[in-house]
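Q&A FORM
Asked by: J.P.
Topic: structure of Formimidoylglutamase

PROVIDED:
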Amino acid sequence: MTIDRAVWQGRVDTGETGHTLRLHQVLRDYDACEASEVAGGAVVLGFCSDEGVRRNHGRQGAVAGPDMLRRALASLPVQGTPAVFDGGNIVCADERLEAAQAALGHRVAEVLAAGARPVVLGGGHEIAYGTFLGVAEHYGDRLRDEPILILNFDAHFDLRAQPTASSGTPFWQISQLLAGRQAPFHYACLGVSRYSNTDALFERATALNVDYWLDSTMLAHRLPEMCEQLEKKLAKVSHVYLTIDMDVLPGEKAPGVSAPAAHGVAFEVVEALIGVVRRSGKLRVADIAEYNPTYDRDGLTARVGARLLHPLITQLQG
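REPLIED BY: S.T.
REPLY: Here is the structure written out as tokens.
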């Protein structure tokens, strides 16, 4: 896949002294590089899909999210000289969601096999099943003895047990995939809204031993306690898959999503907890979902998403 340089455009501080590089200036084409060059770096992948949201009866527009997030990332400054690559987009065409998820999975597995870290930009939260297919392909039976924490910042459990995949089913699908491989399902959903999930979903979460924190409890004054609790969770696993649904944030902070939150979790809380994950050294793959440019306001949601993504891309191992 050839990356779109028209998307990666940004400011160039010509004539300034010191380290003035911005992300678009250090980014390289993943497919044009040797495996030895990619190892240890971060590879940005796009998953252009609205199909899961459409099937889940949400408002569409997230298909345009990946390139808009790239545009928001392009001019952000970088520290040091990170190895950052773009591996292009996986596009869901003709409502063929399952095929697109499989293609994303293969791409994620390929990046992991190269010793790099995939950072996937969505797209609806159906991205999560595609991303995890890549994790499962890469780690295989090792997930039985090397447990992975699936850490989802989200107002919704996305545990719907439906015969047709959608943006509401990915973590149920992952639970079934892991059960079929006799591997443990460690799922934590942080930022759950009591008013955005039915009793049936709470019951399913309990049955699956899902660890969840309600948005109403994730308050800034409790951040030290939450960081400590998260560190304890991370200590029990070998790997982490981090997925961020932008609707975990308050609607006024992230209006450009499929389902804006009436309450949500403060940005500084989400950012700090992601920092705990990053510093654990166990983060293997990350994605961001549900950014919907159609409903954004002055590009605010894109900038918020870019700020969350920036340290994952430029300091993924640090």
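FOLLOW-UP: The chain has a mean pLDDT of 95.
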